């Protein structure tokens, strides 16, 4: 019974059981080879596109890194332009002169440190810090103003104020010493 149903089914479907035309096998192989070569070309094209993606990514990362580093170096050069030494060679010499003079005066001030002079020295160091903070503001103003001469004069004046302050403090310390020596001589 089951075989009868299957046989009738096959008879109704009308299968083409004729032999293929001559050269069919060769044409079929040729079509397969063409499809195979086209798929190779497509894979090669995809491979090429797949290689470009990472290369573009690397190029983008390098471009960003270059931009960031260039920005940092430009920022550092801009910061250096706010310094008095960046204005001209003469200003560089002036800054070096005042800086060395202030260092010398500070060494002399620290050499005079004693219990009698400690309060005066601490006050002088506080005043120096204020003047240094003002100088830093002047450096920013110099960057912002494009090397305005008034700012340059204010910076030089700041150096002079620091030196004057240190000289005054050293004179006061000398006065304290001389008063101490006089009182010790009177006591003897």
Automatic annotation (TrEMBL):
It comes from the Bacteria. Keywords: Coiled coil, Membrane, Transmembrane, Transmembrane helix. The keyword Transmembrane applies. The chain crosses the membrane at residues 51-73. Residues 114-186 form a coiled coil. This is DUF4179 domain-containing protein. It comes from Salegentibacter maritimus.
